[in-house]
Design a protein that fits this description.
heterodimer, A: about 230 residues, alpha/beta, 9-stranded mixed beta sheet, 6 helices, about 20% helix, B: about 220 residues, Glutaconate Coenzyme A-transferase, 11-stranded mixed beta sheet, 3-stranded mixed beta sheet, 5 helices, about 15% helix, about 30% strand, globular
């Protein structure tokens, strides 16, 4: 069921304590800042968050972490020069970290959306990140078993949605959007523009509307926004 | 004896830019290449139009152009180091799972990475020092090490303390096993593989001097 929602607050209102929330974006590109701010305001806590990073500076995901709403991070690259809120929680033992190589993170999210129960990948074989995981020699190389990452909710950003919830993205802001949209039970998308059904070329739709549950327009949320 | 010292091709050790220039020259025309964050990024400065190289950035793009400047800066167009970049004619965007499928699926010809250590059989250590209390962060390092057909490493041969980073076995946590095919350093270029380590050329020193610095048996490349 697809809903067009007026405000980001209403869009995230149903997110419950203890949810697993995927958040799109790589760097500032594709980060749904307004939806993250709304999630902070709505007060949901004890969250497991899936994102490539663990928050930067004093905005978005970093504030969710600072406020103690995030119980666990599943990400590939938590440590950055400005990830001080995550760093503090991690050193205080107040946040759990599941570190996943970036491509494994992406493929585990994709697998969830595609109904795959797990897969073998050569990435991380022989490293500490493969410890405790099943390895097999397949197709000429050692490979490590990885499981899908499902989510209750995905918060993503796209450029445009049409009346069917079909999405197009902008440049490298696409990143995790399409796979997170498919992996979550409930996908909430913030877009810069809602366009009439029929105005997107079907050949160019990136995320078909079947994966989208809620669309909210956020003005100036894409190229115009300066971090 | 003289054949061994003849692989010296420069009177002095190479600087960072000279090394980047050498790596760029060694990339075959028409290659699809991923340049890691840091020193490897310098390689792009020396790729020529005639080489027709397509650059991949793992956040989801082929056909990446130079770093963006001034009005070109667009926060939706960044590289894996989160630096604003430009797109070249013929560029393509794709999502993260597709981008890593390009890598894991063996479609990239060359990946150039930095390293803490490389072992005799091509193990790479470049993601984590393993220091107690350090927050581990891996990003795409393991995917890059595993996926490309050739993995080139760029690093100084010695640590600040003068210890060789080319080692019998990595003491830092490894990023990938047996993945490195070439190591470009300020003092020499090494070819790594199942048959051991071969020195292709040396800079500012002889093969024998390199052998003194590196604690594993080396072979000089036959002309």
């Amino acid at each position: 069921m697809l809903n067009f929602i007026d405000t980001v607050g209403e869009a995230v209102a149903s997110i419950k304590d203890g949810s697993t929330v995927m958040i799109g974006g790589f760097g500032n590109a594709g980060q749904p800042f307004e939806l993250i701010d709304a999630l902070l305001d709505c007060g949901a806590k004890d969250l497991t968050v899936v994102n490539n990073n663990a928050g930067q500076g004093d905005q978005g995901l970093a504030l969710l972490i600072k406020e103690g709403r995030v119980r666990k991070m599943i990400c590939s690259f938590p440590r950055q020069s400005d990830s001080w809120h995550f760093d503090a929680k991690y050193h205080a033992g107040e946040i759990e970290l599941e570190l996943v190589p970036q491509g494994n993170l992406a493929e585990r999210i994709r697998a969830a959306g595609a109904g795959i129960g797990g897969f073998f990948t050569p990435t991380s074989y022989g490293t500490t990140l493969a410890e405790g995981k099943e390895s097999r020699f397949l197709d000429g190389k050692w490979q490590v078993f990885e499981t899908p990452i499902h989510a209750d909710v995905a918060l993503i950003k796209a450029l445009k949605a049409d009346g069917k919830g079909n999405l197009v993205y902008r440049k490298t802001a696409r990143n995790f959007g399409p796979i997170m949209a498919a992996a979550a039970k409930h996908t909430i998308v913030q877009v810069s523009e809602i366009v009439p059904t029929g105005s997107l070329d079907p050949e160019n739709v990136v995320t078909p509307g079947i994966y989208v549950n809620s669309v909210v327009r956020v003005s100036g949320s894409s190229a115009e926004k300066v971090a | 004896m003289s054949t061994q010292t003849s692989i010296q091709t420069s009177e002095k050790p190479l600087g960072r830019d000279e090394l980047a220039q050498l790596v760029a020259r060694d990339i075959a025309p028409g290659s699809f290449v991923n340049l890691g964050i840091g020193q490897p990024t310098l390689v792009s400065n020396y790729l020529t139009e005639e080489q027709n190289i397509t650059l991949h950035t793992e956040n989801g793009m082929l056909g990446m152009g130079p770093e963006a400047e001034g009005d070109e800066i667009d926060e939706d167009l960044i590289n894996a180091g989160k630096i604003p970049v430009t797109e070249l004619p013929g560029a393509a965007y794709f999502h993260h799972a597709d981008s890593f499928a390009i890598m894991r699926g063996g479609h990239l010809d060359i990946c150039v990475l930095g390293a803490f250590q490389v072992s005799a059989n091509g193990d790479l250590a470049n993601w984590h020092t393993g220091a107690p209390g350090a927050i581990p962060a891996v990003g795409g390092a393991m995917d890059l090490a595993t996926g490309a057909k050739d993995v080139f490493v760029m690093m100084t041969l010695l640590t600040r303390e003068g210890v060789s980073k080319l080692v019998e076995q990595c003491t830092y946590p490894v990023t990938g096993v047996g993945c490195v095919t070439r190591v470009y350093t300020d003092k020499a270029v090494f070819l790594t593989g199942p048959d051991g380590v071969t020195v292709r050329e040396t800079f500012g020193c002889t093969f024998e001097e390199i052998q003194e610095l590196v604690p594993l048996p080396l072979k000089a490349k036959a002309e």
